[in-house]
Amino acid sequence: MSEMNGKEARLKAMRLLTARDYTERGLKNKLEHAGFGPEDTESAVEYVKSFGYIDDFRYAVNYVRSSVGTRSRREAERKLLEKGISPELIARAILEEYPEDDAEDDLIRRLIHKKCRDLSSLDRASRQKLLAYMFNKGFGTDRVNRILDEELLDITS
To answer: Nearest Cα to 63, choosing from 81, 37, 48?
Structure first.
């Protein structure tokens, strides 16, 4: 590691972190993409970690907090795994920040009404398409079916 490249990598890491928060893996990828070698990248990441500028748990908590009401718990977990956050940190963040099931049920209801404006005209094919969409969003089909049945019951009563 040349001292100049190590210093440049540290400065680049600091500049990147002034714009937004990064996971450890995300910052490493960004520095490597900028042309810094593995040794300089590792040194820069350790440097910013020593000041608390990068913290994967804090990142996970903030991500989960911002996901509530817009993403399922499973989708938030999947996205954090893709960003390189460890399963242990994700579990802690979810436990601390994700609300009870009622909030997720409300999100399912909102998404159902957003995707299907007129539930009374929901045919079998449309229902399957809606279930596939919700499954891709990370919701269990049993749960979605239960809530969809409740919503359809409300319409017919």
So the answer is: 81
